[in-house]
Amino acid sequence: MKIAIDGPAGAGKSTVAKAVARKMKFNYLDTGAMYRAAAYAMIERGIEPSDREKVLSALPGLSMKIVYKGGSQKVLIDGRDVTPYIRTPQISKGASDIAVIPELRLKLVDLQREVANEYDVVMDGRDIGTYVLPDADFKFFITASPRERAKRRYLELKETVPDADIDQIERDIIARDKTDSTREFAPLRQAEDAVLVDTTDLNREQVIELVSGMISGAV
Ligand code: C5P
């Protein structure tokens, strides 16, 4: 079985996807982590993720693998786990910049489909229902207002970044949404057959309940 969960940055997709995967005993694939790891790998090589020509020439040498350790997903670049380094604002922007490049996307989509062929999966991202798994058994499009998404990120960040600025976070989220939804190839978009879930006025448990309820009501 395949479950696709798409939506803009910070809408709570990964929280829902992880919870649903745990309940159903499926594997969870966070495809955003793959774009983040690709951006990280380029920056490590001294390449700007937005520099299409340089990214394209480095692409054949980019070795990415997805492994599951203790139930959680790790992204390996050249055999090294880069998962701890990919959650910074610089990498968020880099991921969105590199995600515009179709050749890079195709390479990652191949890997994503390999995982879906091997396991039952809950996959989250931007183009899962529209492009990666158009035949998914369930599709959800999870969203919330930009302010609410910024507020959630701010509360997460506050612990480790005491000077986090909610207005700056909101501006970054809006900029990333724009890059993601206006790119030509596989943009962020709700699939026609996806269920829209607006989480602006819902808490985490309510969203998980709603999505898992729709799945278990239908299987
Ligand atoms: O979901 P997350 O915020 O980690 O994704 C980081 C970036 O990776 C997104 O802003 C988007 O540009 C890109 N992405 C994508 N397609 C996906 C998943 C993520 O373009 N399926």
Automatic annotation (TrEMBL):
<dbReference type="Pfam" id="PF02224">
    <property type="entry name" value="Cytidylate_kin"/>
</dbReference>
<keyword id="KW-0418">Kinase</keyword>
<dbReference type="InterPro" id="IPR011994">
    <property type="entry name" value="Cytidylate_kinase_dom"/>
</dbReference>
<dbReference type="GO" id="GO:0016301">
    <property type="term" value="F:kinase activity"/>
</dbReference>
<feature type="domain" description="Cytidylate kinase">
    <location>
        <begin position="3"/>
        <end position="212"/>
    </location>
</feature>
<keyword id="KW-0963">Cytoplasm</keyword>
<keyword id="KW-0067">ATP-binding</keyword>
<keyword id="KW-0547">Nucleotide-binding</keyword>
<protein>
    <recommendedName>
        <fullName>Cytidylate kinase</fullName>
        <ecNumber>2.7.4.25</ecNumber>
    </recommendedName>
</protein>
<dbReference type="InterPro" id="IPR003136">
    <property type="entry name" value="Cytidylate_kin"/>
</dbReference>
<comment type="similarity">
    <text>Belongs to the cytidylate kinase family. Type 1 subfamily.</text>
</comment>
<keyword id="KW-0808">Transferase</keyword>
<dbReference type="InterPro" id="IPR027417">
    <property type="entry name" value="P-loop_NTPase"/>
</dbReference>
<feature type="binding site">
    <location>
        <begin position="7"/>
        <end position="15"/>
    </location>
    <ligand>
        <name>ATP</name>
    </ligand>
</feature>
